Model the fold of this input.
Amino acid sequence: MSPMFVPGPVDVAPEIMAAQSRPMLPHRAKEFEAIFHRAADKSRALFGTQSRVLLNAASGSGLHEAAVRNFVHKKMLICANGAFAKRWHDVAVSNGKDADLLDVDWQLPLLPEKVAEAVKGKGYEAVAFVHNETSTGLMNPAQGIAAAIRDASPDSLILVDAVSSLAGAEMQMDTWGIDFVLTSSQKCLALPPGLSLAAINDRAMDKAKTVENRGWYFDFVRLETHRLKDTTPATPAIGLIYALDLQMDRILAEGLENRYARHKAMADCAASWAEAHGFGLYAPEGYRSHTVTTLMNTPGIDMPALKAFLLQRDTRIAGGYGKIKDTTFRIGHMGELTLADVQTLLAAFEEFMGKTR
Ligand SMILES: *Cc1c(COP(=O)(O)O)cnc(C)c1O
Done:
């Protein structure tokens, strides 16, 4: 099997697949509680937090809903420069929240001063944004944005979607002053889909206790009560917890700095290849994602033919997403992939382009 270059779900290492097929344990068994505790505890390093990480069976979108239900009575702001932040806004509105949208050009980063201007004096209970926009291949300057929100609106909780960056790019939620970070298993963590991870600090947890109608399944207060006993209110995704426990060992053995550098090197390689071969890059320099590259199809290559050509080599890339679906395509370079894998893919692109020229 050749690796695939889509921004989730990504290839999973064979030993992680094997870990999932170990015999089930009842989730109230002491043996399972120990694994559950370990897995969550180790994952805190990825978030850069001393606070808790809640594990729940869901994809990341479940936590978009959980965040608005737990942290907001009424009024919040979502800052959007891509499709996933737009979705978070839809989720907030469909949960009856009074959610404003700061709608920024998709080819521009969220700039701290713009965000500060949008939050000042508005009394937002929470301000949400996406760290790494998987649609546009743009990584927002999370540290600067968080600092600007803290400064302009100290009482607003800061909520961050790090679905396609966590475990592939640095996140320091405690020192950057972020209150809540959500992610899911099938992107840079390189696990199968189905597990969501939420890091929540005490400030956010205290706010949740005051919010009504948090729901049941994703009630962070209920989940926290159970977490303190190393369990969950409902049946956890047992196999995925086994997998996370082992994957965290593999990630920590690689070293976080090395892992982030590996992702950055793949991004740099994809970007310089694109520029050398006449493809525009959708995201501006300085804000390009380390985990996914969005290329504009400037040379007008036949995308269905390219995809078919790659499939013959047992590999895949991703098309565009959202409103830029037809004009862009994406190379996901996250999880277990290496620079050599990306170089092999780019060589295949060249072969294809040589054939069709
Ligand atoms: C994939 C993705 C999501 C959606 O996550 P699911 O786990 O598919 O629900 C949300 N935000 C970003 C930035 C993503 O890349």
